[in-house]
Amino acid sequence: MRGLVRAGILPTVTVAIVGGTGDEGFGLAVRLVVAGVPVTIGSRAQDRAEEAAGRARAAAGADAPVDGAENPRAVAGAELTFVTVPYAGQADIYRSLKDHWPEGAVVCDTTTPLATAVGGRPTQVLRPWHGSAAEQARALLPEGVRLVAGFHTVSAEPLTDLEEPLDADVLLCGDDPEAKAAVGELVERIPGARWVDCGPLSMARILEPLTAVLISVNRAYGLEGSGVRLTGRDAWGRPAR
Amino acid sequence: MRGLVRAGILPTVTVAIVGGTGDEGFGLAVRLVVAGVPVTIGSRAQDRAEEAAGRARAAAGADAPVDGAENPRAVAGAELTFVTVPYAGQADIYRSLKDHWPEGAVVCDTTTPLATAVGGRPTQVLRPWHGSAAEQARALLPEGVRLVAGFHTVSAEPLTDLEEPLDADVLLCGDDPEAKAAVGELVERIPGARWVDCGPLSMARILEPLTAVLISVNRAYGLEGSGVRLTGRDAWGRPAR
Hints:
The structure is a homodimer.
Chain A: H1 2-6, E1 15-18, H2 23-34, E2 39-43, H3 46-60, E3 66-70, H4 71-76, E4 80-83, H5 87-97, E5 106-109, H6 133-140, E6 146-150, H7 156-160, E7 169-174, H8 177-187, E8 194-197, H9 204-207, H10 210-221, E9 227-231
Parallel strand pairs in A: 1-2, 1-4, 2-3, 4-5, 5-6, 7-8
Antiparallel strand pairs in A: 6-7
């Protein structure tokens, strides 16, 4: 299917967003559908998914290519799925979707193991057994599914504010360069956004906790959506080597 | 002494840089002396310290306010000391300086616990027992000395390139707001640099490993000095609240 996209026969990949009723997933959904990417918002409940799809159309335009579905159906129909759920529910979500991933699907996990998962502070993180929430997800995914982690430094508020370009770089990591580039192609459709290849999936151990730093910064400076840009290069995207 | 600086009677704080013969410390020394800040480059050996001071004068100008001294004497004469040493030697350095810190001194530790300390990769990190290299340093400092951690995302190359302003934010953390602001005042003297208060010293657990991410990014994109800017605000510095 992705070959057809590359050849320009299909306009784009089809995207699902598990957790798309939450702020981060919803913001991402809206940015993507505005860019013309067909998105299915996934939720545990069909009616909540449809309600969020309705809100996305209200924000992005009545003809925006977005619908809602229960998570298993959303995932089964998508070439690329974002998983944007709180850490407390992350493992259960992956277990429940185990039999629904299409072969070769790309998954982009945005989870940060904030200490809020166990009643702690959002400026602190847990250390998952596997090293990171993403590596825990990897352990729960079928082998043929390709995992990328990212978006930990992009908060919901600037995603949702369609009036402004996104003043943020999206830091991605993963063990499959093609999968990172596929997620990166979507990032590049969001005005202002750039993506940076930060290395293998284990880099999620360092990238995920950045959410806690930005929450700390937001609180200290009275902000809602601080983010990160990398310096040292004007253009990022897929590395040449 | 710092009261006199504030009152404009002394031009600035006096700064020591332990590890100032290494690339990062040397780059920082040069940027500070160019800005008129008196710096003593510290080393274990007097002759190496003096050699580095000579190199700093060669880069910054013959009348640049820089000299060299063995670490204990450098530290004893400074109100603010940067410690820029490899993680493998960090604890020993702090132990050796235990009796030499002036009361109320501010220390800014820039150590990242890269896995190179034990023969591992520079794109991987160790997890220090105390949580971070900075917290290990805290445990080895007298109570009256105030510790800040930062500069983990600022590499030596752009520091040393005096032709270009520094396109980088300096992420600081620490438990003493005055100490963070004192380090921040020095950061603000480096053209292009801004400083951001990222929270308590324990945030070093998240900030220190960023060095490994940037080394990974440098390798992937063929760069020498990628860095970080925060977005969401034009001016950072000391938070209003």
